[in-house]
Design a protein that fits this description.
This protein is of the alpha+beta class and 516 residues long. 42% of the residues lie in helices and 14% in strands.
Length: 516
């Protein structure tokens, strides 16, 4: 990197990210200063006749020539001194830039993470609206929607010069959906638990209207969708028009007609370095996600199946859907609740290692920060709201989801911006959930206002957790459970909430790093 400034070594992904994060607003100033040092060094080498190998040719010449060169150097010493001073000033400038940037890096990182959190919240809420409006099937049972809690261990940051639209287009959301036959649901209720259904996967990302790609021929409902709208032209004007009825298409297969309820889970696998997937101006609006879900497993991966739109805000957003098979083929996996994992009598829970427990606790805690004030986090987390993917009866502990039931039959085309109050009950519930996770047992319903005997039982379990989880994990749980002590009768504000969750995440992250 020193021999070849800004060469290939500087462009490696991890190195480039760290340099961007440290230089912040000063990358050009830093580069120009380094370039100026290179020019000054080259001039000095030329004047002193220093070769690329660092040797001075005239020092090896005859005595008379060598003395003459020394005499010329003395005469032109001021010229050399100017170049040396120029190099020295530039080096001092680089030092000052780096010292200041390193000093400000923690605060800048905090602001960058805050910006990223805001974008994740806005996008997840918008995708919720778009999915809700696109679920226009005639299912008698309500749909369930949830957001996955998968989080990158080292989330990429964004500097002020990064355009938010470019950042948004690099996020990817992992959508999984379930379906079952109406023969088991004739009375309009689903007698089987949600994790017994069949599942398929897809990716959702914000559309880049400039790219093109082939279109999948998926069946689309012949009836208009409720309130679904699409952009009449993909321009910045933002003008929208109602979606016209689709032409008559071939009738769906009997399996499609037997769909009575669809469950959708949304998993946020987002990364700022996600590959750009192809789009097509001819990709159609999805008006019936039930039909899409049913035939999605037969579609080619990486090709857009259509798009859904959120027009609940002043600016419409379009999201393209792509098939994905990261968890395997349809029927190879399912979802199970965390309660079932903790209550199991087989060997599934004992197989949960301490590293997996801390990893899942880290994912859940991080989601409490990322999904705060979104429709996905309407209530405090419990073992009944967290779901895990499961293959061959074994839960996959880094594939966690939170479930959300969508309104049924309301006729609303959009939902109003969602907000929730920061409460100490949310932190306390998180502490109970983390305690249950480390002990691999369900404690039961305990709240901030529970009776003293219940709080005493929790305190005894916390002592037991200390022997299993160690000081960092115990500190994270204790911080959640003692929120009432820390804040008393004072309400928990947005800034205090983020500070508390960030502290908890920090303890869990320290444990994860120690086990790597």
């Amino acid at each position: 990197m020193i021999k070849n400034p800004f060469g290939q070594s500087w462009k490696q992904q991890e190195v480039h990210h760290r340099i961007r994060e440290k230089l912040w607003r000063n990358p050009k100033v830093f580069e120009n200063t380094v370039r100026d040092i290179e020019v000054a060094v080259a001039e000095l080498q030329s004047s002193l006749q220093i070769g690329s190998d660092g040797k001075v040719a005239w020092l090896e010449s005859a005595a008379l020539t060598r003395e003459w060169k020394i005499f010329l150097f003395i005469l032109r010493k001021e010229d050399y001194r100017h170049l040396i001073a120029r190099i020295s000033d530039d080096v001092s400038k680089l030092q000052s830039i780096m010292d200041l940037n390193v000093e400000l890096q923690p605060e800048r990182r905090r602001r960058s993470q805050g910006r990223m959190l805001r974008l994740v919240r806005d996008l997840s809420g918008s995708i919720y609206n778009a999915i809700r409006m696109a679920l226009a099937c005639a299912c008698s049972a309500p749909h369930h929607v949830g957001l996955g809690l998968k989080l990158l261990s080292q989330p990429q940051s964004a500097i002020p010069e990064d355009d938010e639209e470019d950042i948004v287009k690099s996020f990817r959301f992992h959508l999984v959906a379930s379906y079952h036959n109406s023969s088991t649901d004739s009375d309009g209720s689903d007698p089987r638990p949600i994790f017994a259904r069949r599942w398929c996967e897809m990716f959702v990302r914000s559309a880049d209207e400039c790219l093109t790609a082939p279109t999948c021929n998926l069946p689309i409902s012949a009836k208009p969708a409720r309130g679904v709208r699409f952009l009449s032209s993909f321009s910045s004007s933002g003008v929208s028009s109602s979606l016209p009825s689709s032409p008559q298409l071939p009738q769906p297969t009997p399996a499609m007609q037997s769909v009575s309820a669809t469950t959708i889970m949304l998993s946020s696998i987002y990364t700022l370095i996600a590959p750009i997937l192809p789009l097509n101006e001819g990709v159609r609006a999805i008006t019936d996600m039930c039909q899409l879900i049913h035939c999605l497993g037969k579609q080619k991966s990486g090709v857009s199946c259509g798009f859904i739109i959120d027009d609940s805000c002043s600016r419409c957003r379009k999201y393209d859907i792509y098939p994905h098979g990261g968890l395997g083929n349809v029927g190879d996996w399912l979802l199970t609740s965390l309660r079932d994992v903790l209550d199991t009598n087989d060997t599934a829970c004992p197989q949960l290692s301490y590293k997996e427990k801390v990893g899942l606790a880290y994912i859940i805690s991080s989601s409490m920060l990322q999904l705060h004030k979104t429709p996905w986090l309407a209530s405090s987390p419990t073992q009944d709201t967290i779901f895990l993917a499961q293959q061959a009866g074994i839960p996959i502990y880094d594939k966690a989801f939170v479930r959300k039931e969508m309104p049924d039959g309301s006729g609303a085309t959009s939902i109003s911006p969602y907000s929730t109050t920061c409460t100490k009950e949310t932190l306390f519930s998180l502490g109970i959930l983390l305690l249950e996770l480390i002990l691999c047992q369900v404690i039961g319903h305990v709240t901030v206002s529970s009776q003293p005997r219940d709080r005493l039982r929790v305190s005894e379990l916390l002592d037991k957790a200390h022997t299993i989880g160690g000081p960092n994990y115990t500190s994270a749980v204790q911080r959640c459970l003692e929120c009432e002590v820390h804040y008393g009768g004072v309400s928990l504000g947005e800034e205090s909430y983020q500070k508390e969750i960030s502290t908890i995440i920090g303890w869990l992250e320290d444990d994860l790093k120690a086990m790597q």
